[in-house]
């Protein structure tokens, strides 16, 4: 009897082993609402993962057939999964440093800003620098009584910080606010004269007596910025750690860093080598360091075709300013500042030189352009570079922001194959006051014109421009499909005919983001053979009423099949 029992057990286990999957999955995600961004198979219930790649997609029943003895089974319980969200334009270290300095993003009045500085001064030693970022005078619910050229003055700032230099970056990154102590250290005093305050590519804002008000726009900010003590390696590591944590919590699996130097590349490489890099990085070389570009021209792009964690194959050029500080370079005067058309912050000859040199060497060029003049000038130079290298068809040059376009230039994006790397959240934040800068006609004809760009065949890669805005894809997705402020105004959205569909918005945050970094064959959609990069949300962003979208939370973030964040 005992012998028969043993034989029965052997037969049972033999049968069990034989009936198990030949190639079991490492993990499976079942019972979900999964949007694949694969036109041939747009919606499934489950996904199987093997060696960090997608092994199979299908129904829960189909995927359960790949469950083996050691397979991890994750029950999505009806939650929504999408391809991992790709942040196509933001500033990696800025996100981290923003958490280590004064965060002024949510300040609602000038008095509140001054109060934050006062508290920081109370904790600082005399002479220590007080730094921060995020203020935006046009977003304050109440403006100070004294304003010069649309900006506050530093009188109240000087009262609370007479002995500590203060240097606060505008939310856009295109203006700064300094107290008198900082200006004094920079040698900026009374600037009476024929053209007071003018700096090449920027401006020192002065009052009617020629006294600096503390506001510096565009390249004028460097007069004070160069005095701020350099960051330490330890603080840089802390900032990067905080930034990666923020990306994971916000469901970001890939990140396009919009302009960094070798120091950041080396730090990210260090994190990769140590196994601490939890998002795939696509770093643009900063065009502010010509010697850096020359070094990279010699050695060529660094394309990570093995781990796909760190690639450097693009160059970021900063060609104009932002609308908020009236630095965006326009074809016509600002509606609220006659005689002023913004700033060309980089000679256009440099755009020509870099484009023509980078293209045959395999580098992509990504040029910051917000104003219609800047966009037009850059498209002209891209077109000339393409004409000189007709054999290179797959260049994927980009314009970062492409916020305000002349109607004649909109079709050129599709015709030239230039990617528009736009941040939909800027519509929500900027549109209420942008009409003051541009006037109604220019807004309607060419500002944030997503559908007009799609109609030309152009691709839009979405993002946030963090730390200009929080690195949170949900508000930008909401802005994409509603064209409303985050308060839900106006009814029907601003220029509602330019809204993205939810499918377009999802693609702009996934597959088109991957295309913008030459990685659409590796990631960006949930298809067999692609990377197992996923974002899981607690509700269905593709179907919930639009006023519910902003309540969405990230439940889980998966990179290469590994869960790097869970809200459980």
Automatic annotation (TrEMBL):
<keyword id="KW-0732">Signal</keyword>
<dbReference type="InterPro" id="IPR011059">
    <property type="entry name" value="Metal-dep_hydrolase_composite"/>
</dbReference>
<protein>
    <submittedName>
        <fullName>Amidohydrolase</fullName>
    </submittedName>
</protein>
<dbReference type="InterPro" id="IPR033932">
    <property type="entry name" value="YtcJ-like"/>
</dbReference>
<dbReference type="Pfam" id="PF07969">
    <property type="entry name" value="Amidohydro_3"/>
</dbReference>
<feature type="signal peptide">
    <location>
        <begin position="1"/>
        <end position="18"/>
    </location>
</feature>
<feature type="domain" description="Amidohydrolase 3">
    <location>
        <begin position="72"/>
        <end position="565"/>
    </location>
</feature>
<dbReference type="InterPro" id="IPR013108">
    <property type="entry name" value="Amidohydro_3"/>
</dbReference>
<dbReference type="InterPro" id="IPR032466">
    <property type="entry name" value="Metal_Hydrolase"/>
</dbReference>
């Amino acid at each position: 009897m005992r012998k028969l029992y043993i034989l029965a057990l052997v037969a049972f286990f033999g049968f069990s082993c034989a009936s198990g999957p030949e190639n079991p999955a490492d993990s499976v995600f079942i019972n979900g609402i999964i949007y694949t961004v694969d036109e041939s198979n747009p919606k499934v219930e489950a996904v199987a993962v093997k060696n960090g790649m997608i092994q199979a997609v299908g129904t829960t029943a189909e995927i359960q057939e790949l469950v083996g003895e050691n397979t991890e089974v994750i029950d999505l319980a009806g939650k929504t999964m999408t391809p991992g969200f790709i942040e196509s334009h933001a500033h990696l270290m800025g996100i981290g440093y923003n958490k280590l300095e004064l965060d002024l993003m949510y300040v609602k009045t000038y008095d509140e800003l001054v109060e934050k500085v006062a508290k920081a001064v109370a904790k600082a030693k005399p002479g220590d620098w007080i730094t921060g970022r995020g203020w935006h005078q046009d977003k304050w619910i109440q403006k100070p009584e004294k304003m010069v050229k649309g900006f506050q003055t530093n009188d109240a700032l000087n009262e609370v910080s007479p002995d500590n230099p203060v240097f606060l970056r505008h939310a856009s990154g295109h203006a700064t606010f300094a107290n008198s102590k900082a200006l004094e250290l920079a040698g900026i005093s009374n600037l009476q004269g024929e053209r007071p305050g003018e700096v090449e590519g920027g401006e020192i804002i002065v009052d009617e007596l020629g006294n600096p008000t503390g506001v510096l726009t565009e390249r004028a900010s460097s007069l004070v910025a160069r005095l701020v003590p350099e960051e330490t390696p330890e603080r840089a590591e802390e900032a990067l750690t905080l930034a990666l944590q923020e990306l994971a919590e916000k469901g970001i699996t890939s990140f396009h860093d919009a302009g960094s130097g070798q120091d950041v590349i080396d730090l990210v490489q260090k994190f990769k080598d140590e196994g601490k890099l939890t998002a795939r990085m696509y770093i643009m070389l900063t065009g502010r360091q010509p010697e850096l570009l020359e070094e990279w021209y010699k050695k060529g792009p660094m394309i990570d075709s093995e781990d796909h964690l760190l690639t450097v194959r693009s160059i970021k050029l900063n060609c104009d300013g932002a609308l908020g500080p009236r630095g965006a370079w326009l074809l016509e005067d600002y509606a609220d500042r006659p005689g002023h058309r913004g700033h060309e912050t980089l000679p256009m000859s440099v755009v020509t030189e870099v484009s023509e040199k980078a293209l045959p060497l395999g580098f992509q060029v990504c040029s910051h352009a917000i104003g219609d003049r800047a966009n037009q000038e850059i498209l002209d130079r891209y077109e000339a570079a393409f004409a000189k290298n007709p054999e290179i068809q797959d260049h994927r040059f980009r314009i970062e922001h492409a916020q305000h376009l002349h109607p004649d230039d909109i079709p050129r994006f599709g015709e030239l194959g230039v990617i528009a790397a736009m941040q939909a959240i800027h519509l929500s934040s900027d549109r209420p006051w942008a009409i003051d800068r541009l006037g109604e006609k220019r807004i309607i004809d060419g500002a944030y014109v997503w559908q007009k760009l799609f109609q030309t065949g152009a691709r839009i890669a979405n993002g946030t421009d963090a730390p200009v805005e929080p690195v949170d894809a949900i508000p930008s997705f909401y802005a994409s499909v509603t064209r409303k402020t985050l308060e839900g105004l106006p009814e029907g959205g601003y220029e509602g005919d330019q809204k993205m569909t939810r499918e377009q918005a999802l693609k702009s945050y996934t597959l088109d983001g991957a295309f913008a970094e030459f990685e659409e064959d590796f990631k960006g959609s949930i298809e067999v053979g692609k990377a197992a990069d996923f974002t899981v949300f607690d509700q269905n962003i593709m179907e919930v009423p639009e006023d519910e979208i902003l309540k969405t939370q990230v439940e889980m973030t998966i990179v290469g099949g590994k869960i790097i964040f869970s809200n459980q």
